[in-house]
Specification:
This protein is α+β, with helices and mostly antiparallel strands and 270 residues long. Helices cover 52% and strands 11% of the residues. It contains six helices and five strands; from the N terminus they run αααββαβαβαβ. A five-stranded mixed β-sheet has the order 1-2-5-3-4. Strand 1 and strand 2 (133-139) form a beta hairpin. Helix 3 (70-118) packs antiparallel against helix 4 and helix 4 packs across helix 5.
Amino acid sequence: MRDRKKIEESKGSTARWLNTYADMVTLLLTFFVMLFAMSNIDAQKFQEIIRSFQGTLGINYGGTSVRSNEVISQSMDHFADIDEYYSESRIIAGINEEMQEIEDMGKIYTQVQAYIKDNNLIDSVEILNEKSGLLIRFKENVLFDSGKADLKEDAKEILKRISQILSQFNNDIRIEGHTDNVPMNTPEFPSNWELSTKRAVNVLKYFIEESGFDPVRLSAVGYGEYHPVADNDTVEGRRKNRRVDIVILRTYTLNETSPKKGVSGTNEQR
């Protein structure tokens, strides 16, 4: 008798628990039905999407896959539009950057040319517009005495003003040393390679130490006698070949709209 009473009590408590669970399930079902009723889902498209995902996951119940589904195809069309948009945006951005660089190069040219004229340096300093960038050429002994690599005091004043102009812009700068073909053979400079390289490096160091240039922007190279701009068989030709060139490199080479660093560009008639 006592055992039967315990069983009945146990059945009663289970029934009460089931009632609570059933109420919760009913409420959840009602909630989701209400959400479904409030939405504007196209049932046919919804089923197509479900079948598409099933096909993608390898659970194809006779429906079409994502690749052939009309809804997904329309989405892919949108993605194609997005790709085209970003592609066009990059082209436009590149053109804008190139135009900005052209404007900056014009400003550099104008300011340097004005400085050259105002300080009567036309016979010793010139600025040229080349494919790789603007080239500021210091002729013969403007920066250094013959056979030397230490900057002259007058040269420091010139480089200081040039560096003030160039510091307003962000282009990389390459400093090139050149010599004539007269052999160089001293303990300090066993050949023209050492002399031309040391001169370029000393100009670079002046830009960094005295003008605060970011070293990342600068590079120095010595070409020795191997990039002449005139005939080394004449006195006048050798005089022209003894020079230091400061090249303000283009990020965009001429007639191009894609970025291309001028550091690796060709060397025109150095």
